[in-house]
């Protein structure tokens, strides 16, 4: 009887401690929530359950802009019934948040960790600082010059496919470019990151390893996006018990096996990288650098760390770039004057350098108006609409002191459409980025974020976008597809045109 009494007492004590811990978390959460409500104004007409989230996916962009115009510096953001934070929408308030180098908000980035591991997007602290320093060698000017050839080769494959379809009469009702551009950017990043020339744009066998890898990555990305909108799956335990979670884990295993196999094979054949050529005879690529780079202590990256960085490159460098290209083509189809002005500039620059074959990295910056147009696409569409941070200590923003562990949303879509910063922000106008315009705040245009944690592949992406769009404009005239559905902006981790972009192409 005495032993049973001790066991019962121990169970009651454990349950009591567990209940006290839960109560402490709940009380702490509500006190923090009340403090934020007292400090920061909330836009009117928030829904009792959704908060400030749009009722319909098609209204997401408009909803964000409405809230930002009501509170053009900062406002209390409720994402669903529980998540409360501060959304900063003005260059000055964004600069104040990023000045402190705050850590990333774990809730926002934690669900990306199964896919990306501790790559640059999700890691922090000393690990991030070390990896960032090592990975800068992937994006040196020497490497960026080599990538231009890859951009041109891969883009030529896609444009030839379009030409074939037009010649066969298959494109009379328009070409759904959203079906082709993800494969193009996947082909580019696969060649640049792994040195793999897989002909994935022309491959028809969906069971081939590279296409299975491509479809697995896209399905995992879509599942991750849906998980953010399904609170019952916020718990890893519940998620991985579900059929969706089991499918997710299976797809992750497949993608990891593909990456790890390539890394292991390259490590076996890579004896040295003198003069930019390995003993396998190919040009030095990202994977070669990741395998050979060493920190100040002579320590390199493990195979797992390399795989995490490669997966991060593929996620961050493929889906985002293809989405920007889709929006750019959409805007070209609706703005014939801008399209013609870009085409005239491309023809002049490529003509002066001796033709497309002679077009190299040093000629990209001569595409001034094309660059301004790409910048306006990045502003207007805001493909990366938000970046999340968390205050590690009391942080002063716009005259108020935010308590520790406050969710801060860097509202990129908001600042890019802030009427206090931009004249007629809803108009697509590349001239706003012309050199003659008045200078803006350094944080008024932040498509790649800002500060120490800004996108490391910014120049890679800008170069790729300008080369691909230039080649497209030289081959085709773009016009609207009258039979296509008008796309709307929808946040699926990134701001994509939904359901797709379809245009008519006329070969020049």
Q: Key features?
A:
single chain, 508 residues, alpha+beta, 4-stranded mixed β-sheet, 3-stranded antiparallel β-sheet, 17 helices, 52% helix, globular
Summarize the structure.
The protein is an alpha+beta fold.
Protein architecture, described:
The chain has 508 residues and is an alpha+beta fold. The chain has 17 helices and eleven strands. The protein has helices at 2-39, 60-70, 91-99, 106-110, 113-116, 125-135, 141-167, 181-194, 209-228, 236-241, 243-269, 286-292, 303-334, 336-353, 368-381, 412-416, 458-475; strands spanning 74-79, 83-88, 175-176, 386-390, 395-397, 400-402, 407-411, 476-480, 488-492, 494-498, 502-507. The chain has a four-stranded mixed sheet. It has a three-stranded antiparallel sheet with strand order 3-11-8. A two-stranded antiparallel sheet has the order 5-6. A hairpin with a 2-residue loop joins β5 and β6 (400-402). It is globular, with a radius of gyration of 25 Å. Mean pLDDT is 85; it is low at 275-280.
């Amino acid at each position: 009887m005495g032993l049973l009494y001790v066991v019962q007492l121990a169970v009651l004590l454990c349950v009591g401690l567990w209940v006290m811990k839960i109560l402490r978390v709940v009380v702490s959460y509500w006190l923090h929530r009340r403090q934020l409500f007292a400090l920061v104004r909330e836009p009117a007409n928030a829904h009792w359950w959704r908060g400030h989230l749009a009722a319909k996916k098609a209204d997401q962009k408009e909803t964000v802009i409405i809230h930002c115009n009501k509170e053009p510096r900062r406002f209390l953001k409720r994402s669903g019934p529980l998540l409360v934070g501060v959304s900063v929408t003005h260059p000055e308030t964004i600069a104040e948040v990023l000045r402190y180098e705050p850590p990333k908000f774990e809730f926002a980035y934690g669900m990306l960790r199964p896919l990306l591991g501790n790559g640059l997007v999700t890691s922090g602290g000393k690990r991030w600082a070390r990896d960032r320093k090592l990975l800068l060698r992937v994006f040196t000017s020497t490497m960026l010059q080599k990538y231009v050839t890859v951009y041109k080769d891969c883009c030529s494959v896609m444009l030839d496919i379009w030409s074939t379809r037009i010649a066969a009469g298959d494109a009379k009702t328009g070409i759904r470019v959203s079906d082709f551009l993800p494969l193009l950017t996947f082909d580019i990043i696969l060649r640049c990151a792994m040195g793999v020339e897989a002909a994935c744009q022309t491959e028809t066998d969906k069971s081939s390893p590279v296409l299975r890898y491509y479809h697995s990555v896209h399905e995992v990305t879509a599942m991750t996006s849906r998980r953010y909108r399904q609170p019952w799956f916020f718990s890893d335990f519940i998620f991985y018990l579900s059929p969706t979670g089991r499918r997710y884990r299976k797809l992750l295993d497949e993608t990891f096996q593909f990456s790890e196999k390539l890394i292991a094979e390259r490590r076996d054949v890579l004896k040295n990288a003198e003069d930019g050529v390995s003993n396998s005879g190919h040009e030095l690529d990202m994977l070669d650098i990741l395998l050979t780079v060493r920190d100040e202590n002579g320590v390199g990256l493990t195979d797992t760390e390399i795989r995490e960085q490669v997966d991060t490159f593929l996620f961050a460098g493929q889906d985002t770039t293809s989405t920007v290209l889709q929006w750019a083509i959409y805007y070209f189809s609706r703005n014939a004057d801008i399209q013609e002005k870009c085409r005239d500039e491309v023809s002049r620059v490529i003509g002066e350098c001796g033709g497309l074959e002679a077009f190299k990295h040093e000629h990209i910056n001569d595409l001034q108006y094309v660059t301004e147009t790409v910048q306006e696409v990045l502003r207007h569409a805001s493909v990366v609409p938000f970046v999340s941070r968390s205050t590690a200590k009391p942080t002063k923003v716009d005259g108020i002191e935010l308590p520790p562990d406050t969710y801060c949303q860097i509202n990129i879509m908001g600042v890019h459409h802030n009427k206090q910063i931009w004249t007629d922000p809803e108009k697509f106008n590349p001239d706003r980025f012309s050199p003659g315009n008045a200078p803006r705040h350094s944080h008024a245009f932040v498509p790649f974020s800002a500060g120490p944690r800004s996108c490391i592949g910014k120049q890679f992406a800008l170069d790729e976008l300008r080369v691909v769009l230039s080649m497209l404009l030289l081959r085709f005239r773009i016009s609207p597809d009258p039979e296509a559905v008008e796309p709307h902006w929808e946040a699926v981790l990134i701001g994509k045109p939904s359901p797709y972009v379809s245009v008519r192409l006329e070969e020049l």
